[in-house]
Every structure is written in structure tokens, then in C-alpha cells.
Design a protein that fits this description.
The structure holds two protein chains of two kinds. By secondary structure, chain A is an alpha+beta fold. In chain A, strands 2-3-1-4 form a four-stranded antiparallel beta sheet, with helices on one face. Chain A has one domain: Alpha-Beta Plaits (2-Layer Sandwich), CATH 3.30.70. Chain A is built from two helices and four strands; from the N terminus they run βαββαβ. By secondary structure, chain B is an alpha/beta fold. Chain B folds into two domains: 121 residues, Alpha-Beta Complex (Aspartate Aminotransferase, domain 1), CATH 3.90.1150; 254 residues, Type I PLP-dependent aspartate aminotransferase-like (Major domain) (Aspartate Aminotransferase, domain 2). Chain B has twelve helices and 13 strands. In chain B, strands 2-8-7-6-5-3-4 form a seven-stranded mixed beta sheet, with helices on both faces. In chain B, helix 4 links the parallel strand 3 and strand 4. Classes of the chains: A alpha+beta, B alpha/beta. The interface between A and B is medium-sized, with 22 and 27 residues.
Chain lengths: 72, 382
Amino acid sequence: MMYGVVLFHTTAAAMQAEKVLSKAGLKVKLIPTPREFSSDCGIALRFEWEQRAQVESLLACKKVDTASLRQM
Amino acid sequence: MIYLDNAATSWPKPPEVLRGMTDALERSGGNPGRSGHRLSIEAARLIYDTRELLADFFNSGDPLGVIFAGNATHALNLAIYGLLRPGDRVVTTSMEHNSVMRPLRHLERKGVEVCIVPCARDGTVDPAQIAQVVTPGTRLVVSVYASNVVGTIMPVKEIAAIAHGAGALLLVDAAQAAGALPIDMQDAGIDLLAFTGHKALLGSPGIGGLVIRAGVDASQIEPLMRGGTGSQSEIEEHPDFLPDRFESGTPNLVGIASLKAGIEWLKEKGLDAVREHEKDLTRRLIEGLSDIPGLHVYGTLDAEKCVAIVSFTAEKKTVSEIGMRLDEEYGVLVRVGLHCAPAAHKTIGSFPEGTVRLAPGIFTTHTEVDIAVKAVAEVVKT
């Protein structure tokens, strides 16, 4: 399974994203931000890479503020 | 014991609030937003859920605009010092608590122009009088939502329209109103709302906050403090996004849990039902006290126009003697004096002695109000 992570500026946005995506039935998990990406915010959201488009659209539609989206 | 000091802090708290606090320490004991392990994430989730709950409760439109602070005073200082610069003009009312008055008087010495609109003796303000002094170029209007001395509810929606008409922001001190009255920030046009958690919201002391309405440009508010946020740790400059811009250091997780449980309890009960009960108690209190000879009851004397706060003085007894005897001889707990609001007492005509303040709460019963009224009648007679 290939995973991606969403990085955030603030923890509050990570929590917001988790709620939005879980509600939509996506398999996501909050994890400590992998060091190789950024130290922006201590918590990142892991998702299944093949659901990338849906993750992006849902977060955009709910106006969740994200820093970036990376492949793990 | 009859506790009628809910305007100072509510007591007792619902059992759910106490449970929420111990649960937070037992089950969500990590440091939110710092470590990323399950306990840290659990704590972050609890805090975020509370932001959502508050944004919905006050209809502010943006959970990230919910800024946690130590109390209403902290939140008011954050907004006032964050917005006002020397040369700015601020308008407020003569019913304000010292949590607004003292920061403003301090800033006045630093070159901020402070204009205080006089209120009537019953604590009401005439919006037309506010309109006269909120001139273009006014930066901020500050108003209490409900007076902590006489409970009088201010016409915040009208004040918001006046403030916005002049290009000013409206900051509302909801220390007494939050949890006692339904508050709709978007409908009323309240830009910034300062609240405390330990009064009508039924939480613990040490938690409060500033709610920033969606659409208000938070970048014009300078943070009061800067420090660790768990975000942008590689940078030595403080982040500018919400809520981190205004929150640094480890937050009061237990206090936030108490606030969450308190609001959930209020929602379960129904805020309208809470308000009806407190109106009933207030009406009973006003009627009972007004019948006692030699007593002067302050405020609008209309339960529709105030929160559950009733103030009085007696012709022949000092307020301190009344307070002490109510406690010692009758077990009735009230607050006497100036209630940290000298301007309000000057307005209603009870300065410098102050008043005896009776503030029933959601757990107060009709019988308790009746016993308290009888106790007051006996104390002022003998």
C-alpha cells in the first residue's frame, strides 16, 4: 500500500481534516509528521495514495488550511 | 446553604463537568500538537472538538477563530492591546467591568483616545448616544453583553451596526452572558467575543477565550504573547495563522474539557429552558426584594431585560454587614461591594459603597430564592 501525508500549519487544521475525511469514509490516520518532510506542525495526516484526488477535493471543499501534500 | 453568587462563579458544577475533567487527564493526557503519539492526538482532538462546539454555540462561523485564554480578562486584554495603537479612538460604555476599563485607562495614558458613553441609572444604554460618538476613524467599540452589577442586557446588535457603519470593530465582553443567553455572533455582528468558562458555561476556573467571527481580519490583532505552538518549530518567528497566532504554551486541557462538558450539558438541557428558569428566579427575586421596606433594588427590574443578577442596598445597613449576616446566620452566600466595576456603580448611583448582589444559577430553586428574600427582610429589619 502506498501512502501519502497531508502536512498542516496548525494542529487545529489537522484535527479538522481528520474529521472531514473520516466522515467521508476515507481511511486516514493522524501520525507524527515524518521528519523528512517538514517540522511545520507535529501532527500529519496519512492517507491512501490512490485516494489522493478525493482527499484534495474534500479538504478544499471544506476550506481546511493545509501546508502541503506528499507521497510517503 | 444557598449559593447566590453564580455571577462570581457558578456552583455547583454538573457531575458531567467533573467527569470530563478527570477523563481528560486519564485518557487524553498528552501534550496536544506537540508529540504526535496517541495521547497527544487525543488531547488535540479534545481541544479541536471544543473549538467546534464553541464556534457552533456562538455561531461564529470558524472553529479556528476560537482562541483559548485563561479567562475573560485575558481575552479582553488580548483584543484591546492587540488592536489599539496610540492615536486610535475607542468607544465604550459606563457599565463596563474593570477588565475593560483598566486596559483602556492604561492605553489612554499611552495616547489612545477613550470615549465612555454614559448609561442610564438602570444600566441601559441609548444606542443613539453611541452613534453620536462612534465617528469615522473609531477603531474599536467595546461593550459588555450583560452587566455584572445589575444584569442589564445591552443592545449589542444595534451597537454592532453603529460600529460597522463607522468602520470600527465590535468587541463584546460576554463574561456574564455566555451560557446564560443565546448568542449569535454572525446575526448580531459581534466581531470579537470574550467569554469565561467558569460562570454560566459551568466549566472550571482558569479557562476562557476570545472568539473571532469568520471574516474578521485577525492579522490586525497583535498577539499578547509569543512562544511555543508545536507548529513551525524551525522558525524563530511566531506563526501568523489561527489559532496558533494567539495561543502559545501548553494549553489548559483540563479547563477546556470542563468547558466542553459544560456546554454539552447546556445544549442537552436547552439554552432556552435554562434562560426561562433563570428568568423565573430573577423575577421572583426582584418582586420579593422590591416588597421589603427600606430596600433599594437597582437595574431595570424586568427579568426580560437582564440576566440572573439582582443588586440592592438598604437604608439602614451597610452592604458588608448584610453580606456577613446572610452568610453566618442564614447560610445565604452573596457578593457585596463594587464587583470590580466602579464605573457601573457610579452609573447606577451606588458608588462608593456598592451593592449586595444576588445571582441565582441553573441549580437554584424557587424555594431557595424565597428563603433568601426572607433572610434579607430579617437582616435589614434587625
